[in-house]
Amino acid sequence: MTEPDAHNHVGDCRRIFALLSEYLDAELPAETCEQIAAHLKDCPPCVEFLESLKKTIELCRELEGEERPGPLGEAARRELQALYRKALAARRPAAEPSPDAES
Hints:
Elements: H1 10-24, H2 30-41, H3 44-63, H4 74-91
């Protein structure tokens, strides 16, 4: 048996997640915005994601005027990729093949 406030509308959430950037930018039809607003009233995970997206946008805007570093050198890129694969391997169950095994 599920709890009364269990999150039971994951399909709706996926659709909402896909539209949130356009929702924040007011690029959606009014009817779609109303549907999203109604969904957000009853969905704490989507509200949390929306707040996270707003914060991300805010942080990106703060960085717009700042100088950005150049691209990574090849050695640094290889090292990061190796560390990433190692981290993935540590999280993967033993029977699951690595992404590199399919290449």
